[in-house]
């Protein structure tokens, strides 16, 4: 019954998006709810347990029950509403009883640690006594069974008697058997009473010891989490502290940038040591810094020390060549003042699970989502944000060495993820034919154009040309799946980068992004996977590894490591850092085979010079936490521009309304635009059907500014820029643009 101490039965439990609800055997006992695949599993395998004392019990509908405790959630379904009510009653009673037991235990002293030698000896002695009592009970049980059988036989013989004279003897024997049975039963009852008394005497102590261990575990988890937060806070404070370090004896005094470099050295030193220490656990290699008498480093360990080095180190022959650091090509000062803030994000609450529970396993782009989960930027604008650190490519274009150029290209590929660390909101899905331009020709020497070239599957084409010696283009298709607890975002498609003077042509692909805690907890994003950057002209490569985050790992969170190698596979540079902060390179002067790693694989030991900073993330603007954590570039992407195409994302009404904080109107406008797009698709399908019936050829939708071509390097067919956009903008003739808004 629901009111008893133990309640058992079948329930359906949500397992995953593939199998859905599965039938499981649940057992409620002593304030714990456990489940098994079958009843037979109760003897050996428990699939999971949840403590009701700290659990929250919720009922979604007529047959569903949701239990959550300590980050663990069970979604259960009963076969009927009556059965559901029985379970809810049993769960509530068990929860109340468990809470009472915890409150009773709180009155006892729990300060002393139950793991001392005396406590351990006492517990062992108690266990021996309990085992002895259990043996007594087992013996009594055997005697009862034996005498009971004899009594049964005697009674049977009594019934078969015919001679009255023999009746007296048999009856006497029966009485003797009954007396013996009564004595044995009394002995068993007394043994049971002794056992219960002993159990009650020690149960409070056991419960207190168990509660102490639980509290210690909770305290340890909270301490680890707090230490992680303090560690990150100390890192940020250390980076932002304007510490001045006196110039080393060998540092030149006539260098104009010496003061700035000394600040950079002081603020980055400890972080670099941490990054290289963490590389001991990387699956591929270990880095050791070469000891040179000419280098004045703070850290004299066998691992790499300070990152900034001296001001003259950057231009030595054994580091980046002077051409890579020529400051003559620095950006011009912007000719116009860009905006630095947008309206604060409204604080609207919304139950995510009520929307997402019916979307498990579906393609994200096909789920109708309110703007509450969006940020006021489209996917085209998010692609454009890859250019936040375009100066890395400007610098790479001036490099004489292709290997040094590869290091900067790798840093650029990593820098595109730096804006995602706090950006857990979803960008707007672009409408078919939507475009976005970013014209920074006068300020930074480049022009960027994106166009949504396909809707199913969603695909965007991007083309950037710079007057500073490089061209970048890509076609990205976003494949995304909602997995129940997390969201996987897989960008498909290659990114091409070509430098005009050298002809070096680099190709790479993006890694998988994962948004965690979709249902319960604070959203956070992680990047994981490998990137291979290939220079098709020289066949040089860079292998980058994005390590997935692990709470108990000794590695630095969001760690990235990499090796730059020539066409023969010889490694020349080691890259290290994090995708949300900075990346450094260290020139390899010697390599050797090291010992085995944690997985038994032999690692390569690279002896390197001191690491040099390649890229460091810009600080977020003031009040960024209330502006969707936008970077300085992202804040300007929706700023009105004169003369842009009618299909530009800046003109999209629902996006503008959301940025202004008018979310209800934005939701209505978003539904109108999506319905308009569906109507246009139905119209094209009808035209295709008519053309097929008439035997005509139907071309289908064709993008305005991009066309499909086969890539000679990768062999893939993708959309590339066919020209004409910027000339059309100069003429201000947008008559060919479709009416999508």
From TrEMBL:
Species for this entry: Nothobranchius rachovii
Composition bias type Acidic residues, residue spans: 105-114, 266-280
Domain PH: 4-96
Protein name: Oxysterol-binding protein
Transmembrane portions of the chain: none
UniProt similarity note: Belongs to the OSBP family.
Coiled-coil blocks: 210-237
Gene Ontology cellular component terms for the protein in this record: cytosol; perinuclear endoplasmic reticulum; plasma membrane
Membrane topology summary: Peripheral membrane protein
